[in-house]
Q: What sequence folds into this?
């Protein structure tokens, strides 16, 4: 109890420093991934930058591992305290600090979730576009450089984060970036912290870009005879440079589990979910062109909606696909691949992936943000069944190796965490990984910040 | 001659290793800035990554400063070898290595210029959007995180560079990024090299995003009674979230020198130059809305063109504004400010800047990429007249201090180089600058790569 007592000298509020078994258990794993849980020794809920700074300085002094935790929706084990220590739960730092409608900017604390932010932005006619599906915290989304369905139009977190307040491993606070939408003033430290998965510092404040809600939005579904045709259509849509907000592929198996989970009646066939936005005239014109193209690429059926409720239902179905998979097989956990390939390699990558899943005799679906060449194989596995885990890992490796052979990446948006560390050198080469490790060593010489992540031990 | 002889052992081609006085002089300064020239001891023209690597390894071994040089269009003294040594002219590395139309990607060597790339892309229906005005090399543009007129739509170099091949200070080559349009695989090293102004490594290859040439493009000019009204209109255009490709402010003095230099007849009043692109229907619809808005904001006259020749003439006039200024006063050089402010602070920033120039009794114009809150005061100065230089520096400081007080940056796109180093701490704070210096020390422990830049001595 020494650790708890020491931490309570920093944060006297006993509810916010705990070794409670249930709470430690909640912080031992993420929501759905297959990674082995591991409990922290203590869970701390800071409310201010100063408290974060004090806790990190304490951890630094006593060489205690420290792992940031938002709502636990990361999928590569990023939040698992593999070496014990402190789980730093940032959900009490959930204030929206400033909304500047005329500057298209907001300042938020790291525990604000994307849905919370969008609710607050709505009355200003604004929205925050990055949409990984889960209602993740913005701090967590920055830490993994999350993206999701809208990246094809708005880019990833890296394009939205203009500035950060971050506590370094020694407890000092650093401010990077600012309110200007572009800057060439020195090294891009903001871009270094974004995607560093809590291994270089703990984010305590973010300045983010936000956007005007478009005048008119149209969501559409296009059904295809097979996954290859759907992938070809996705690539073709991008190549004709139609302005798309979202272009998502969902395969038959995914539609099946979604229908079951959400009581929906989507046709059980490979489908592209699409979204267009802008002025009404432009959207209608673009969608007419898109329909022609989708038909040329073999779409069997195209449906669309423009009212908000119907559109939300469609995207909720898409967003809850991962949840639908885990709900379809109680006790099972998800292994989700996350490669991103150049657009021309997408159709072959998708077809190969579907084949690999079937050959391995696994239950799983394909879905993804195919406008960017990013897709996931969601594989259902019993983590206590070593054979099933091995087969799923093998499928993951096949998918990653193909992506890397095409110049792609092993992770488009989930990050490295525990699960992709073995691919890092293969993707980047020795010199790049060595430089990443030197930067880690420079910023966190005693390896207290989220140790065991990104790099192989 | 020891240095030259040693370098010729690495590159036996005598033309490519020289101490010729004229050539050294050409490499002692940039094209138009006020910074004090300083000659290199040798100029080397490598043709391959291997040659670059050998030269850097040699420089590392003998502790010789090494400064990369493209076409010398940077404006903060980035290319000036303030400590002598080797000027590494990369213009012989000007091959376009790969154009992948279906992936919207190209691979180029660092000496390829943006116009050269666009000429090659045209037959594929593609273009590279980043447009700093000058026909800069892509390596140089990446090194300063250049942007320009189209950043409001396409972003800066940082958003276009997907991957880099870079030679480190010890001669090793590092590959960062890849062909995927997004990645969360480890630390963002590509983003660290972009904007590092040759101080962390020498870029020998770039993978860049390219885009489809829009179906329809419309360029327009809107004339205003004063610079305040023009700035307000620019901010208003952005706030209504109309999709704009470019929105440029040019003040009266700038129009005057352009008219004189280009024999054009633009009305000599503050003007917004605008560009819209997309499908013809969308562009026409958006421009109709824009016209209403511009009139509401007090525009006296609006003209537009859709044919390529007329549009090119308009943008050539805008692009050659800096050249027009130097041509208008032979012997004088340019001091160009480069702040970027949040959109809401733009009108006051512009009005204050115009006042500061007039009060200082200087000749100069205001122009800039106001859709991003980025603008330049182009000040004509006689670099041998200490009083004029002092007054111009004072105006620069006033403009920078105002921008920083609004949360802006001292440089939106030119970089720090020599001229902005004094503002770096004020903008970022001690901890951030200390971390930048630690990263510099990590990557270039003996300070041979472009020494004297970014950080104050």
A:
């Amino acid at each position: 109890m020494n650790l708890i007592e020491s931490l309570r000298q920093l944060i006297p509020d006993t509810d916010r420093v705990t070794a409670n078994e249930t709470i430690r258990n909640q912080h031992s794993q993420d929501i759905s991934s297959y990674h082995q849980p591991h409990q922290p020794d203590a869970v701390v809920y800071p409310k201010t930058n100063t408290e974060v700074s004090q806790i990190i300085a304490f951890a630094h002094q006593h060489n205690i591992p420290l792992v940031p935790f938002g709502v636990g929706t990361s999928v590569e084990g990023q939040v698992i305290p593999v070496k014990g220590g402190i789980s730093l739960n940032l959900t009490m730092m959930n204030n929206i600090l400033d909304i500047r409608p005329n500057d298209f900017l907001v300042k938020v604390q790291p525990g604000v979730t994307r849905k919370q932010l969008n609710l607050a932005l709505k009355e200003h006619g604004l929205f925050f576009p990055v949409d990984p599906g889960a209602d993740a915290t913005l701090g967590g989304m920055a830490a993994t450089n999350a993206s999701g369905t809208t990246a094809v139009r708005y880019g990833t977190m890296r394009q939205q984060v203009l500035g950060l307040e971050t506590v370094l491993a020694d407890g000092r606070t650093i401010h990077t970036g600012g309110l200007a939408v572009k800057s060439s003033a020195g090294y891009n430290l903001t871009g270094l912290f974004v995607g560093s998965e809590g291994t270089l510092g703990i984010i305590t404040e973010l300045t983010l870009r936000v956007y005007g809600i478009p005048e008119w939005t149209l969501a559409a579904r296009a059904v295809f005879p097979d996954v290859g045709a759907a992938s070809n259509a996705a690539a073709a849509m991008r190549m004709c440079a139609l302005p798309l907000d979202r272009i998502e592929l969902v395969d038959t198996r995914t539609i099946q589990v979604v229908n079951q989970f959400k009581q929906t009646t989507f046709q059980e066939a490979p489908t592209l979910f699409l979204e267009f936005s802008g002025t009404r005239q432009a959207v209608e014109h673009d969608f007419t062109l898109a329909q022609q193209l989708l038909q040329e690429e073999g779409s069997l059926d195209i449906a669309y909606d423009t009212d908000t409720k119907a559109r939300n239902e469609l995207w909720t179905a898409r967003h809850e696909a991962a949840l639908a998979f885990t709900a379809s097989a109680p006790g099972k956990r998800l292994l989700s691949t996350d490669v991103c390939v150049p657009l021309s390699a997408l159709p072959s990558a998708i077809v190969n992936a579907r084949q690999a899943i079937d050959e391995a005799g696994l239950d799983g679906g394909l879905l993804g943000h195919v406008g960017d060449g990013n897709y996931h194989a969601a594989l259902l596995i019993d983590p206590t069944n070593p054979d099933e885990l091995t087969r799923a890992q093998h499928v993951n490796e096949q998918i990653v190796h193909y992506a890397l052979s095409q110049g792609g990446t092993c992770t488009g948006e989930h990050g490295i965490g525990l699960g992709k560390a073995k691919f890092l050198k293969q993707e980047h080469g020795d010199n790049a990984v060595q430089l990443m490790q030197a930067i880690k060593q420079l910023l966190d010489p005693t390896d207290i910040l989220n140790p065991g992540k990104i790099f192989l031990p």
Summary: Chain B has 17 helices and 18 strands. The first helix of chain B runs from residue 2 to 10. The mean pLDDT of chain B is 95.
